[in-house]
Design a protein that fits this description.
6 strands; mainly beta; two-stranded antiparallel sheet
Amino acid sequence: LLDTTVPFASYENNTVTWNLIEIGPYETVTIAYRVEAQQAGRFVNSVEVDPRSIDGPVVQPVYANSVIDVGVVEECETTSCTGWQPPNWDFEYVGYPAELNCEKLT
């Protein structure tokens, strides 16, 4: 982890935890972060959103994964790999259908 737009609560064993306390109903927060791949290979970013409310209903966690394949350095030019295109993120939704939106959680 090189940097992040939102300060994190902890960073242990390759797990970053953010505690976003002041999010209202139907609000969203975007956390942009930057990492560096130390080697070629497939990297998976797994996310668990565990919403909790002091006085509201209990909501089950929501999960998503993104996958990126990093090529070998020798295959790349000085600025990018030839033929590079944005990755197919292979998002995997667990617990809710992929078309779920905030309105359906209430």
